[in-house]
Amino acid sequence: MSQNRRAFPVHILVFLAPALLIYTIFMIYPLIDTLRLSLYASTPQDKTQEVFIGFDNYKTLLTNDQLAPRLGGAIKNNAIFFAIHMIVQNPLGLLLASLLASPFIYGRSIYRTMIFMPTLLSFVLVGFVWQIMLNPLWGIAKDILGVVGMQSLYQPWLGLESSALAVIGLISVWQYVGVPMMLFLAALVTIPDELIEAARVDGATALSIFWRIKLPLLLPTVGIVMVLTFVGNFNAFDLVYTIQGGLAGPNFSSDLLGTFFYRTFFGFQLQQGNPTMGAAIAGVMFFIILAGVLLYLFGWQRRMLQLEY
Amino acid sequence: MSVVTKTKIYRPRFSLNRDRFSQRAQLLIAHAILLGYSLLAITPVLIVVINSLKARRAIFANPYGLPNEATFDLVGYKTLADNGNYPSYFLNSILVVSISLILILWFGSMAAFALKEYKFPGNTLLGLYMAIGIMIPIRLGTVSLLKMMVSLKLINTLAALILVYTAQNLPITIFILSSFFERIPQDLKDAARVDGASEYRIYTLVLPLIRPALGTVAVFTMIPVWNDLWFPLILAPAENVKTVTLGSQTFLGQFLNDWNAVLAALTLSMIPILILYIIFARQLVRGITSGAVK
To answer: How many CB atoms lie within 10 A of CB A49?
Structure first.
């Protein structure tokens, strides 16, 4: 041991160095440096010069009458966006997975392939595909509502302040339901058949088998799905950007933290970019995501471990 | 609990018929749900592909019909060929994806091998350090990354994208590959050591044994890198380095009223991913269901 410490084996360094260097330089350093930059501001005389201003960027974010409503709106919208995924996407994924896990269903792999397919498409494609599907000019959405006799319900949802965010959330659910489905499916197939069989012999119905046996065994996966959804949602940008543009219209009703960050940092149309203020928004996003991850690690996963032993 | 015991008492009398009936009904409902959702998943894509092959009038007159002699028209693809730099976008995307993939698999497998194979001070700590990147998105570091790339003169180069994507995907790659290196029997490596193999030789000996895992990681990293919009938009927006995803985004924005062109562009950008998916679907699913991704 002591010998090891004196002369660190060269081959271990050779194996570790490339990954460690790239990861540290292009991921960890930018994350820390962005947090540092959020405490600075560029001087009006020289745009490249930055001076330390403490937490003033954060104060401005919370009090400025231009920025504060946008930050509040983005956080609120993001919470709604997350709620849509938690209420629609994850239960739907669980439902589809439990149907697909049944050995009596023929054509399981075909269903699975079809349901997972949208996940592979880029946000850009998904955004435009749904934009034209919902376009009143083409009228596909109207026709589909007509099939179930609800044609009169059709409205240009993406253009309405009241529904734009919800529709974008549902489009995102359409695209990503395959991920929780696959994760739940992977967990379901590991549940031993004997366990289910024993319950069935005892007269348990399919529903009570699900609630009393499968769901408790799925709880660790539920946690993983929740934290993945949380991180993905609070970091979302692409879908809103492709459907509504950087201004996340109408009237910022679909603005998420990601689009707010992009506009502030990079600038959009007439708005000038402000990197250090952008860094402060990234800082807010960082702490929200960190809080979610820590809550998962110490609130959920630790309890899971206690259950196991 | 009491409910379960009650049914148990009544069960023997007429359980057989009722069970068979309810099982049939359950199966029917299950198929209806799965089929309905599968249709919802693929219909929008099918409608886009079908209509990209039709003349403008037919697109609006009957969006659901297959193209026939009267309605078949490739005008959208012609607009694409005349206005877009699609071949160069494709080349850029392929370059970015393949080079990042090689670096991710190469550096990631070396690091994962070292972390599992050798006991050295700081081993666990290093593993935890790498794990930070799994949960915290690299996007949050964009402000500093842009500054860095400007000072390194890497703005509007594919190298900037490759470096960022490699850094972004190394943590999850190392995490997945570690669990596979762990399963390789120690005797195998010790036997090679007795025969005088160097540590580097042992790495190359072991690598083919985790080939399925490498395939899974490849598919998993390839798709988000191909589809990413954020970093091309910020680090490489110039025309000559645009990726397919960014290229489609700008093209679609400009030609929003030319339905033929929009549908053709959408179809063309979906096809490579769909072909890859059809080829790798089995491997992808096996990768997920075997617990490769936790």
So the answer is: 11
Closest in A129, A235, A265 to B44, CB measured: A129
Q: Are the Cβ atoms of B229 and A124 closer than 8 angstroms?
A: yes
CB nearest B291 (choices: A137, A186, A279): A186
Judged by a CB distance cut-off of 8 A, whether residue A304 touches chain B is no
Of A11, A105, A186, the CB nearest to B200: A11
**Residue B142 sits at the chain A interface (C-beta within 8 Å):** yes
Q: Is A279 helix (H, G, I), strand (E, B) or coil?
A: helix
CATH number belonging to domain A56-308: 1.10.3720.10
Cα–Cα separations (whole angstroms), residue A132 to A57, A156, A240, B62, B84? 40, 11, 15, 15, 20
For residue B260, being part of any structural domain is answered with no
Q: Which of B74, B102, B127 is the last residue of a domain?
A: B74
Q: Indicate if B163 and B233 belong to the same structural domain.
A: yes
**Does residue B13 have a pLDDT over 80?**
no
Q: Which residues of chain A have pLDDT under 70?
A: 1-7, 46-47, 305-309
**B101/B200 same-domain check:** yes
Does residue B7 carry a pLDDT above 50?
A: no
Q: What is the pLDDT of residue A309?
A: 47
Tell me whether B262 touches chain A (CB under 8 Å).
yes
B28-80 residue pLDDT tens? 999 999 999 999 999 888 888 888 888 888 888 777 878 888 888 888 888 88
Predicted confidence band of residue B17 (pLDDT cuts 50, 70, 90): low
ipTM: 0.87
Of B54, B74, B94, which residue is a domain's last? B74
Domain co-membership, B227 together with B111: yes
Which residues in chain B are contacts of A12 at CB distance < 8 A? 114, 118, 120
Instruction: Specify whether the CB–CB gap between A219 and A304 falls below 8 A.
Output: yes
Q: How many domains does chain B have?
A: 2
- The residue range of the domain holding B93 is 84-254
Q: What's the confidence (pLDDT) of residue B288? A: 63
On whether both B23 and B101 belong to a single domain, the answer is no
Give the whole-angstrom CA distance, residue A238 versus residue B14: 57
Contact A224 B144 (CB under 8 A): no
| Residue A24 DSSP class | I
Please indicate, yes or no, if residue B287 is contained in any of the structural domains: no
Residue B65 resides in a domain: yes
Burial of B250 (0-12, 13-18, 19+ CB in 10 A): middle
What integer pLDDT is reported at residue B289 of this predicted model?
Answer: 61
B87 preceded by a cis bond (ω within 30 of 0): no
Domain membership flag for residue B60: yes
